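hey so u asked for the seq, here:
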Amino acid sequence: MNFIRKALHIAVIVLFALPLAAQGNLSEEDVFRLVDAASAQQFEDFGMNFRRVLGNPARFLHNNTFLLCDSAIWNVSAKFVEAFGNVRIVQDGTMLSSESAMYHIEQNTVRFNGPLVELVDKEGNTLRSDRMAYNTKDSVATYETGGAMKNREGSVIESRRGTYDSKIKTFTFDGEVELYTDTIFMKSTTMRYLTDEEKMYFGPETYTWRGDGFIKSDAGWYDNAEGIIHFAANVYMNNDDYEAWCDEVYYHRETGRTEMYNNIQILNEKDYMTLLGNKLIYTSDTVATVTDRPAIVYYGENENNIVDSLFFGADTLHLYTIKRNYISQETIDKAAARKKSILFDALTELRNKQAAERAKAAEQKMREMGKLPSDIPQKDSSAVSPILDSLGQSAPDSLALQAKGTAAIGVRDTLSSRKSLKDINQDNTLVNVQNPPSGLPDSTMTHMQQPPSGLPDSTMAHTQQPPSGLPDSTMTHMQEPLSELPDSTALKHIIAYRNVRVWRSDLQMRCDSLFFSEIDSIAQLFGRPILWNKVKNQLTSDEMQLMLKDGNLYRGSMLDNAMITTQEDTLYYNQIKSAEMMGFFRENQLYRYDALGSVYAIFYVVEEQTITTVNVKEAESMTAVIKDGNAERLIYLTQIKSDAYPVGDLEMEKQRLKGFEWRGDERPVDRFDITSEPVYVSQRDRYVHVSRPDYTYSDRYYDNHMRKVIININTRAERERERQINQAREEARRELDSLKAEALLLDSLLLDSLLLDSLLLDTLLRDTLHLEYSLRDTLLNTQNSELDTLQLDTTLIREMSKDTTGIVASVTDSVQAVIPVRKEEEQQVEEEKSPSLLPDTLDTQNSKLGTSPIDTTQYSEIKIQDSDKAVARAERKALRKARWKERIEQWKLRRQERREAAELRRALRKAKVKK
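ran it, structure tokens below
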């Protein structure tokens, strides 16, 4: 039976294949055949022949292409096949599938109907749509209702229309094309994807996003295998910091290397500058090299508030950034020394010194003439009135006791070997000292060799515990060295090689090479540097340094053979030569220059527009005030050697200083000597309306794949932002902790000094009390006047105690943070538990002497009031001192201005006399 069933099956297949085989002289490939099926049934309907085919699956062959399905209706007369259930087309490794399809045999076209049509090629690229057509003769698939392609790496391309050519292995996308690959988002009007090369070509109006960067171009390609993206034709780029234009860009995804070619312009609105050139190489280590007529344009305004840009060019430009913590300390130290040197105003210091000497001489002369009183010795503010004990003898200063007692009693670190005041007050009879410590003179030792028993001795040894209630900040914060946070500030650097040129309408410059660093904001010029100001002023030296501040010239230093030459006409030049010169700029305008050391000068005198006289001068130093490019005022600060000659009487060789050279032919004439490229303005607003891709078809056909990708990217970005924020917070916290630890250390040291002084003051008080006990019987038998004297002495002790309390209470806020301020009630309770040594001792003494005791309940109020008064007095004193200093500075400034004006008048009078 099986044999009979197979034979009938083969007969049916051959019978159904005969009608097509009989049609003309068709090749074997052109014949449409049923290759395999579970059953086949022939029937007629409306005068047409049909074949109903069932299979698991049924297989048809045409144009070397297999059509597979679960069932099919073959219209033999109309020559088309309707396939149903798991419909697939397989041709040379390319497979299309859907739930239904219509195969037009004569047109060689299979039309697939949705809801989902899928095409998979040899490389595993998957194209999905709801409707698709495939030509089995040409091996081309097309869709027109929107589709999306996804490769094995997860990259996605979608468009409204598209084709796939299986023979050349190329996908073509047209209309609303959107691409995503490796964090790159792209939109375009058309794209072609060559699957065997893994290369994507895109056409006009292509927009690309990566991070915060945006790129617009009209042509280019993306090589996925090599990781290179090429943008061409009207390339425009921007991000949060810059905008850029060029003809071509190559971006290497793995290394971050970027290459830009032809008509390059990079606009940095934050720094008001534009970088130009024809070739730029940017590497991942933040180094950019620009060649082929590179230039930098700095936007700015002149003194008349008119836009006047500065153009800077060279043969090669290197621009890079380095984090400060990666720069060697030696380099930082050299930069700091260079900055300090260029900011030092030597002539101002000299003038102030000379002015002080002249004032002192004038004062001395006035005293000799009797117009001022003789010198009165000033009171030494550092001298302190000696403290007298109860016997009228001078007591040693507590600071001296501290210095002497350190060696005498072998005091260990007070931070870890001091007993609390409370413990001292509570346990004041622990030690009875037979002999006083060496170095601590006791005023009572002339009358007694040892203190009475039971009396506390202030010279007891310190314990290992710190004072209770006074936490030592160093004991908790200084267990390990303070960690110093690295300064990761990115500092910009510029290196210019060969043929360096600068042009601005009123300032031009030229040298062989230049180096600029934001470490000190100083540009160093090498190789015959020269600067022109207002065209006719030429500044030259062997080495030149220019300091920038807020993007403008601020200071200039000319080292070795410095010379300033001013052109009067084509034959005569004013010249100033010195070992070193300093220039001072205001809004890029030279308003003053100083010549320092061995000054030689040649000036021409113009009378009625004719040069008549030449002045030859020598001096040690001079300064000149410049206005509108001319020296308005010259001030010589040392003895001047000056000679005047008629122009015709002095040989031309002697009218030229050594090293004179007028280099006006080297001066850039205009900005076109730097670059002839037009400078673009910002175009951000033009692309604001361009929105990022939304990937409608990709989400529809790939289960919201792109939505998940975007969520993951945003999540990673948010985590990175949180990580950076937490890192910044952690660095800020560590820095704050470091500053607090340093402050607490200083406060602790200050508190130790104050407490030690207080303990030494207690020493004097206790010694005085010891003396009072030893003289008790004598004092009871003395006259009333002697008793009054003793009472005054105890009153003095109270006042000294109040002053000490005020000192401790006025400690800075940071100390108060370590020592919490206790409420008045808490202080009173503690005083009741552990009464103060001084009031109790005085009360005991007064009771024995028959006087009224001291009210201890008011003692804390007195201390607080005195502390507030001391703080208020200190604040008022500091305010008065600040105001007095301000007045002195204003008075000195006015005096200096008057002296300068007087010197100028004298100089003018001398000039008129000589003339």
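The first helix runs from residue 2 to 21. The longest strand covers residues 589-607.
lmk if thats what u needed
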